[in-house]
Structure formats: C-alpha cells, structure tokens
Amino acid sequence: MARCVQSVQEFVQDSFVPMVAVLCSEDAEKVARGNNLGFAELLRPFCRLTSEGHIRDPNNQVQPVKNLRISINNVCTRPTPASGALSPAQRRLLSEVVSSCQPPEGGAANVITAGEYDLNFNDRSLKASVPWYGAWKETLSQVGSSKHHTATTPWFEAYRESFLQTMAASDHEFLNHYLACLLVVSSGETVPVEQFLKLSQEQHRIQHSGDYTNPKWFIPNTLKYYVLLHDMSQGDEHRADAVYEDMKQRYGSQGCYLLKVNSRTAAAGADEQIPDPWSQYLHKNNVHSQSLCDEPTPAAANSALLENNFCSGEADTPDPAEKDGVPNCLDSHPLQLEAPADPGSLDTLRAMTSEPTKGGGGGAGGPVMSHGACLTLNDHDRIRQFIQEFTFRGLLPHIEKNIRQLNDQLVSRKGLSRSLFSATKKWFGGGKVPEKSISELKNTSGLLYPPEAPELQIRKMADLCFLVQHYELAYSCYHTAKKDFLSDQAMLYAAGSLEMAAVSTFLQSGAPRPYPAHYMDTAIQTYRDVCKNMVLAERCALLSAEVLKSQGKYSDAATLLIKMTSEDSDLRSALLLEQAAHCFINMRNPMVRKFAFHMILAGHRFSKAGQKRHALRCYCQAMQVYRGKGWSLAEDHINFTIGRQSFTLRQPDNAVSAFQQILSNDSQQTATQQGAFLREYLYVYKSVAAGSEVDLPQLPLPCIHSAATRVYFGHERRLAEGEKQAATHVSLDQEYDQDQAAMWCQLEEQAAAAANRGVAPPNFQPTQCCLNSQTDNQRFPLAVVEEPVIVEVAFRNPLKVPLSLSELSLLWRFTPKDLSRLQQDAVSAEATSEPVTNDKSAKTDDVVTTEVIPEFHMSPEETKVARLKLLPRLIGQLNILGVAYNLAASPSGETTAHCTEGQQTAEALVVRGRQDLEIRGPRLNHTKEHKTSVCHGPDHRLDPIVTPAMPLMEVFFLQFPTALLCGEIQKAYVEFCNVSAVALRGLRVASTHPHFFTFGGGTSPVTPLSPTAAENCSAYKTLVQPADGSPAELAVASAEDFARPSFKAAAEIPLEGGTLRPGESVQLPLWLRGPDQEGVHEINFLFYYESAQKGGRISHRVLRHTVFICASRSLSVRATASRSSVPPAGADAGVGGYKEEEEEEEEEVEEAAAAEGGKGDMLVFVDVENVNQSEGGVREFHIVQVSSCSKHWRLHKCINPAKDKDCKLTSRERAKLCFRAARCKPQQATSEAEDKYTFADLNLGNERIISSATPCGDFFFRCRAEANELRRDGRAAGASGAFSQPPCRVQGGGTAGAADIASLVRKCNELDLNIIVLWKAYVVEDNKQLILEGQLHVTLQTISKEACSLPQKEEAQEMVLLKFKSEPPAPASQPSVEQLSHLIKTNLHYPETYSHPFVHERLCVVPVTLTLSNCSLAQVDVIIDLRHKTSSPEAADLHGSFAWLGQTQYKRRLRAQEVARLPLRACFLHAGVYNLSTPRVYAKPAAPEPGGACETSQQVASPALIIVTNEA
Length: 1512
Prior knowledge:
single chain, 33 helices
C-alpha cells in the first residue's frame, strides 16, 4: 500500500475527533469575512493542540490527551440522505478531489527496484532496492525499517480525508455527533447578551424541537461556549472588556471567551509578511500533497463543502442525466474523448455555495485571494490560545463529566434492570422479535433501541472515551456493547462496536492484546452484506488496511481492498485496486506481476470513472513491468490504451510514442488488429504533424536491421555484351565470405608488392568495395567523385499486414573539403565549408545526387532490401544519416472498415518520416576495461571520404571456356577498357591458380590476335616436320624469358606504352590450360592497376573475376628412368651402341658427365593411358610429341621397337614409349647459364611443336614453380625423401665424413628430367569434329622411381604411440639401403655364341669381362663373389650349371666415377644355354676409419645368356 505522510496512529486519531458546532451572528460573520474567511474557517488551522491535556477516568486515574485535534464546523440543518450510500454531490466532490490531485510532471522520479524491475514513481520518496531473488532478506530488512520505501499516492489520501469528512452522521454511533456549540457574537452588537440568548435559543430549538434531523448532537445537555468577537480595527476595546466581564458573571469564566482579531492596520500591511496557513486547509486537495492541480481552484469552495454548508435555502436537486454525479455509467466507454464540463463538477458546487459568502469579505475570490489579511501574528497566537482555553477549560471537563455520569448510570441501572431483563428473556423467551422482523430492523437503530437504552449509553461512553484517547476503557465498553448487540441481533450496532473495538485495541499503548483483524473482517462483511451500507464498509476497510499495512501484513491488506471493489463505484474500486497493487509490491517477496495486473485493473476503473489522467498513469506504471518480458499481447493492449488516453488528454507526443511501441515490437495480434493499430498510429501521427515545421520524426515501421547495412562503392557490374563476358568483380548479390576476403587481400598484397619492387608498401590497405558487418570498418572508406555509392538497407515488416513505402531515399550530410590542398600543404588548415544536408527540401543535386525509389511495397512479415544510390559531385566528407520515406497502410479489402474518420481512405493516411541508420561497431576486448565493460569500436562504413577522380577499368573475356580436359590448352582473349577520364598504368594480374593461364612471355614470339593464322587453329607454335627417327631438336630457354621470376608474384600485362588512356581498349590473347586434377575448380583473377596521376588518396584499384572450370580426365602419364646397360664408348658391341657420327658429341657429353658426377645414358620409359571415359564426346587421343626440359638431361631419340609415328589411344587403351636420355652439352660458365633449360622435342607426327615457345614453355615453368612451392610447403613428397636408418649402423657415426658420404651417395641417384607429353584429342560436337590439344608434365626426380602426371592421393599417416621418455638424439643422416644398392653398375661382356668340341676336350673355358662402374663421387670398396649359385631348381634346369675358374672372391677399391674391368673365365661341361649373371657384387663407401658400414648388395643386371654349342 502506498506510503502516507501521516503515521497510522495519527491517521486513525484524526479520523475520529470531537465535533464542535458554530453559530455566528451576522456581525460576527462580517468581522471574519474581513479576512476572506468564515469564522469556522478562521479557526481551522489552529484546531490541533500543541500542548498536552488531562482528564480523570471514572476510577479517578489521570489520562493524558496528546496531540488532540477538534473539528469546528458551521451548523447546517439541511437533511442528508441515508448513510448507506454517497449522494451525487458527495460523488462529484470526491471525483473532483481525485482529479485535482495529480503527480508532478518532470519531477524527480522515485525508483523501486524489485528483482529485475525498476519501477518509477513521480514523487519525492527515497529510492529503495528490493531484490526479488537472491540475497533479498538483508536488503528488505533495511528497507522495511525505513518509512520512505514506498511511493506516495496523494490523490488517495485526499480522497480518504474528504470521504471521512463528508460522511453523514449515523444513529448507531456518536463519533460524528456534536459535543459542543460555539455561540459567537460581535462586540459591535448593540446588546451582545441578547444576541447570545437568541443564538442559545436557536441551538436549543435545532437540537430538541424535533424539526431537524441534522445536525446530530452527542448528548442532550450540549456544551454552550460563548465567544465575544472583537474587531481591533473598528470596535471599542474598553466596551468589549466590559461586555466580557458581564459574560463571565453570567456564564462563568470557563464558559466564555473574548477573542480579539483584526489587529493589523492598513499602513503596516504592505511591509509585513504574514503567513497564510488557511490556503492548505481550504484547498480541495490533500493537506499533505505537494502536487499541483491542473486547474486552480478558489479557496472558498472547499470550505463550503467541508462544512456541509449546502443549506442555502434550496435542496440539492441534480439533473436526472447526472444520476451519479460523475460519468460512471457503463454505457460510456472510458477511452472516448472527454465530454464538456460536467454540470456536477467542482465549478457547479462553487456556484451553489457562493450565495452565503457574499458578505463583507469580498465573496468568492480568485485563485490568488489572500486570507487573514487583517490578522497579525499576535492575532494568530490569540486564536491558538482561544482554542486551547476552550478545549482545556470547556470541552475536556465537559467530556469528563459526561463520562462519569454515564458510568454512574450504567453501574446503577445495568446491575438490576439489565440483568433482570436478560434473565426474563432467558427464562420465558420473551422480548425477542421474530426473525423476519429482526431482518427488517437490522439497518435501523432508532426503532430497535430508544435513546435512553443501556446499550446506547454504553456506546456513548465508549465513544467519549475514544475521543479523549482513553482507548483501554473504550475497548472495554465497545466489547461489552458488542455482546449485547449481537445477542439482540442488532447487526448494524454490533458491526460498529466490532469496528471501534478493533481500532481501540490497535491504538492502545503497549499493545496489551494483538490487533483483532477478524473483528474488522466481520464488521466489513456485516456492513456490506447484511446492512447494505457500502459507506461504512469502505470506512472500515480503509482503517483496517492501514493497520494491516503498518504491521507488514500486505497480503491481507491487498485481499481486503480487492474484496471492497464493486460495480457501484468505479472511483472507489480504482483507488482500492491501486492501493492493493502497492501492497503487492511491498510484500516480503515482492509480487511485481500482481502489482502490474492490479494497476491495469485500476487504470481501467479510473478510465470508467472519467479519471483519464490517473488511468494513463496506472497503465504507464504497469508497462514498466510488462515491457520486454515477452508478453506481447499485454504490451500491445497497454500501449494502445496509453496511446488512446494520451491522445484524448492532448498529449500527442506520448500517443505517438505508445503507438510506435505497438508497431515496433513483434506483435502476436491478428492481421485485422494490427491493421487497426497501424491506422490509429497514422491518424494520430498525421494529427500531430499537421502544421508543424520540424525535422522529420522517427517512424517505427518498417524495422531496419542497421547492422545488416551494406555499402558498395562503384558502378554496378555490367552484364555480358554478346560473346563478351564481363568480369564478375564485387557486387551486392554476392554473400560475404571471410576466407574469400582473406584470399583476395593476399592476392592484392602480392600485386602491390610486385608493383613496389617486391615489397608491399608500408601504408598498404586492401581495397574494400563492399562493406558489411564482417569487414574492417574502423577506417574511413574511400569513394571516388562521380562514382556512385550504393547503400543496401534491410527492411523487415513485423506486421501481418502489407506496408507501402514511397519516395524512399537516403539522408546524408556532406562537408566539402579540398583534399589536394591538404596533401600539398599539411600545415595549412582544412579548407572546409558549411555542411550540406538533404533532410530539407532544398535542391542538392549539384553536391550529391540522390536516387529516389518511387514505390516500395512490403508483404506481411517480409524481409526486403532496398538499394539506394548516391552520386557525389564534389570532393569532401560524406555522412549517410538514414532513410526518409512516406509510410502508408497498403490498401486491402478491410483497411478502411474501422478507420477513425469513417470514410477516410488508406491513401489519405500517408505520413512522411525518417529512420536513422545507427551502426554499432564490434565489441572491444583488448584491455581490462574493455573486458569488464561493454565497449564498442567505431564503424565508419557510412562515412566515406570522397576523393578525386581515379581510373576505372572494365575487363571482358572472349571465347573463355567453362569446361576443359585435364591439361588441355585453349586460347582466349581479354579486352581491357578504360571507361574513366584518367589514364591507368601498371596493369598486373594475380591469381590463385597462376599455372592456369598465361599472357605470354616478353621474349616469346608474338602470337597473332586471331587463332586462324596458326596451322590447324592450334594454340601452339608449330613447324611442319615429319617424324624420321632423327635425334631430338634442341632449344635453350630460361624462366625469365616467360615473365615468371617467382611463383607468387603478380604477372605484368603488356600494354603498348605501358598505359591505357581514357576511353581506349586493348585486346590481348590469353592461353588457358586445364587443371591436372579433375573436378570443378574455382579460379580467381585479380587485376591491379594504378593511376597515371600520382599523389591521390587511393594508391591503386583492383578488379576481381572468378570463373569455375570443370576439368575432365584426359590421359595418365607414368614415367620411369633407369640406367642404360650399354657399355661405355670403346667397349664391346652390345645392345643399342652409339653411332659413329655421334662420337664427337659423346666425348663432350662424357666430359660433362664427369663434371656433373655421372656417366652414361638413361632409358626413359613413358606409359600413357587414356583415362577419359568418352566425356564430352572425346573419341580418341593422339600423342603427337614428347619433349623434355632439364638443365642436365635431354631426350636423345625414341627407341620404341614398334616405330609408331603417331600413337593413337581410344578409351582405356595404354601405350608404352621408350626413349634414350643423354646428358646436355655443358653451358658456358656464366651466371645466366645456371638458369638455362634445354628443351628437346621428339615429334611423333607430321609437325613439331616448339616446346620452348609460348604457351608450352609458359605452362611448363608455371607448373614447375607450383610443384616446387608445394614441395617446399610439405604438401608433396620429395623425390629423395628422408633417409631411413641403414640396417647396419656406422660405427662412430655423426662425423662430417659420414654426412659427406651420404650426400655423395644421394646425388648419384638424383635425376632432374621433365617430360612434356603433347597430345591432340578428336571431339565430336554438334555433328562437327573438333581438335583439342594439350600437354601433360611428368618430373623424374630419382632413378628407378616412377613419377605420374596425375596427383596421387595422400595416404593416411599411421598413428604414432605417445612416448613420455625422451629418446636419444638421432644419429647422423645415413644413406638408405636402396640408395647404397645403386653405387656400382655392372655389365658382362662375352660372346653371345660359343662353339666348343666337347668330344675332344671335356672342359670348355670362355673368357668373360666384368665391367664395374662407380656411379658416385666417393671411393667405393667392392667385393665380387663368384660362389653364388641359383637357389631355384627351375632356373638351374633352364639355364644349366657352370663354374667360374680362378679366384672365387675379388676385392677392389674404385675411385670416384672410375670404370674397372675384371677378366673372368667361365667353365662349361656340355653344350647348352647358360645365364652368366651369377656373380654377386657388394659395395660400400670407403670409410676413413676401419670398421665402417656393412657392404650392400648391388642391383643385378638383366640376365646375360650365352649359347654354348658342340662343335662337330
């Protein structure tokens, strides 16, 4: 329950105070009217005693009377209605009291924190923290002990005080009956004593004649107190003193008083400041409320009302239309507009009560009327002294005497008659009224009990004791009377006794007994249900609720207040529901949702009672709880009601804000209801905006996802023109990918580094053409003048009804700046001018051209993007602020059915507004402050800097394929167009697949623009040269000849003159090669170019292009190299000896071989398989040429036995080719010679392709560079591989000699020979035969190790056990067994056929020469073992058995590259075919110390068969 300014004890005491009547003569009233006050009004501020009084109870015990207040009112004899219900005048009065007391607007708000909720109340209360969950006990105990932990409701206190003061006196209780009467006569009367006599007779007539039912008097012998009022400014003071002396003689010194007033003179009135204590008592609102009323109220009106001074001679007959005095009928909707001034309003009451106040005081004054103008501070003291004298010397003794008399009567009478009466009823059952009659008499007291009845005398004594604060005796009397009333079934009297017994118990000091709340509950139920008296029930509920609240029983208080709500009074129900809501919020565990729910109920009842301001306040307070908790329907209802009420109360801004909340949230309402909300908002908004010349206000619809805003700088992508395919670049249609952005940034950095001598510029920043929430927006983006800036804004329609937007455009602010001057002179100040905006209707196209979208329709719950364009015309700073548009409800079948203006169409409800684009940057998390708080960085995507003009290039591709065979070569064309007014230079291209394309080398022959000039439309440079078995054609080239100094560097695109002038275009050839791996490949190109005019803010520009190439399988090439078994020059003839014409060349080759560490030829076996499965209509492949490229080796000639000139392969066919490879001629010892490669071409068809020219050489070097890069990254296995540990570890390994030996051994097996297989494929497409051509590359790195053109699948690595124990350091690198088995090359020289006469000579001895060649650059120890026999019996039967004569084992040491010959003799016993390859050769590198590595068996040569015949 809301906090009251008074304590509960003070409130209860002030609710029941001694009543004193006043009868004034006309002259006395005139004296008081000189101060714009009646006599009763004059005394009211001084009616609370500041000193303590005393009385003696019947037991002669002194009882103190503290802080006593008396109520002094004029006598009014007008009859009042029955006390069971409020009269229309009382209803009007209470309604005006509540409406005139409003919370202050704009004052400091009180905040009550309950759990997750912070509730704001506009009053002066202290802020309190009442947690809902968690550690609430300690905090609540602190808050509970404070008197300022709840919000005040002064309108409720004003209503309560007015309600208690305007209650009609009842016959069943005497608390509101008059105890005394002040008879006031002016000292200016001719005979004041006669006037006193008249007033005394008038009082007696009113009380005892029976003609008047009002006012009611406490006891027959009413105290009369005679007051002589003397006007110090006019009357004779001596005469007044004389009259007063006479009065003391007549009435006694304790029954009269001389009151002197109006001591203030006119001369001193202007200077002296006298306080005005009457205004707060005469005002209509609460005495303690500091709120300001909406309408100023004259002070005199309240005095007339509070004094019940309606007796102007006329009866109060309200208009029949004003049945309840306030708009309380259920037919009037609470949300309707306020009606004109109510005839029963406070103004009408003022008019009714203005007649008796037209005396000399000036009548009903204005709002600024002063009171007590003729009084001084001494007069104030005299009045205060008068009240004290009257109370202590007149009233309290009078009450004490009556208490004694009543007590004596009750003691004497009750002892006999009451007991006899009770016994008679008990014995004979007499005196009991029938049950039906009792029910009829329950509500009346006069018929049931006569005034002298003992029960009423007990009640009178109880009331007197209660008024003088003798609560213990009062409780005893009330308790006794209660029993008697209950036994007589006098329920109204019993309920009154129960009520006051409970109050007396509560007010007793020391709390001898607990507060009997059940007494109050029984009294309320009896008043309401039995007696049908809602007024008394309401009073009882107000008292009990305050008592329960003071004891912390908020739940019981809330239950009690809710029970008192009914349909007969909306105002009372609203106030009690509001107080019940405050009880819920102040409970030990605050029930915040119940608080909000009952505030909603209170607001609804306030609205029905016509209290629209209070209704709005209740809804606003409840909204604090429901907001943001997911109760969308409740939020919508509350916001809609707030909007309606605010608009009715002429608060358009609040109404617009409330309707915005409805439309901004994700509403769960039906489409019809949402349409109604939208039309209400548009109508209210249009009413507010009509005639106001202010900035465009914010609109709630549609919702804008500001973080999803994307900004694109530049022209939109041009579509393809005929056969031309435009570069894809960047567009708003593409989704942002972080990995893709990093890839493009890397490519741009490579291009910038290539343009800057291999090092990226220190201030390099990647180009960002499209900015979004995932890009780095901390820098100000750079835009180019005369190039558009496109902003993509994401709109979302949260409603289930369509929206229609029109004239949609961007709002911006532009600040012109001279950027060139800033760069030329950094010291000078910025040359800026005033910012230019387009939020007004001024023409700004000469600064920034703004695109306007005329219509933009959104379907229900649709998310749609709008792309808005700006074209800056000047250089400077551009800030994009938001969007402006016209909002309207899209017309539909029922859009105008419920329109506010009836027939007003949806097209008329069009409003214009704006929404700002407020983008918050990423959250910072770098420092401790960032981590402990929520800080966001800047986001400047909407704040571009417009820079001077830059070149702009467009790229088109012609004849660019989408599908290729693996290794296929095709020729396309690229067209570069400069569409700007600035020349460009430094054109480069970087790509993720640099091996996929080439523009040709700078020194390569220029290829014609049109491919028709080449023979057979080939992309290669060819020469007609039939294959005749001659040696390969040789050519020498280097990687620099093909403009590929580095694999990752961006290639420069050759332009004539190095620049491309404005408006020019150039077309260049582009060769493409299909990827080696099948599948779909994404290939990215980045074209880099710079401006010919240096010094701009933008250093370069880029253009992106992405293509997807589908690669299909073509051929699979496998190659193996092995050492040739042909003996060196000068040896016996063997297979494949050299020709004599080549002897001179052989000598040079031998010298080169000796220098390079190797000797002899190589045999290269090429296995080609057609792995194409007739994809794309491929019929067959032709291998037209095999070329080689190496620094040290070359293909010499084809030694294929089939001698096929052209190798044709259909599907799944395989061909084997054999070539002899020889060492290249030694180059001159220059630095350039180290990078020279020898190309050897062996054509198998009728034309030779020059492999050292573009494009064959380009792709070879690009693929080789890619392979080297992959090997460096560890993604491809090297040819040599890691050395494995040998079977026998070297003793004392780890020395430098062991490492040198390993290097020498490894080098003897290395081979760097690249094979290029060129092919043609015949394809049938659209009944036409096409010829495709391509090339495949195979790199032979190691002798006897197969290499393949297709990428090999990486084998999954085996899991390695985790070892926690540190292993010993690995030994020095040693050659592997496989490498050691190739140290010695062996060859047997013998006659192929040998005849021997076995008849004459049994043994046949044949001479055999064993040639040993050291293939390494180290000394080698060799062991030749002739004891080896063939272990296979089948081989022995096939080849026969023979024996070697002489030594069975030889040991030799061969120097580096030494060739040694060992003569042997083979002995045969009979004719046959024998295999002489039985000697086993073991070798090991010669170790510097004895005890080196173990010998390793060398590879055995091919079988050496000899035919031994028997000579006849």
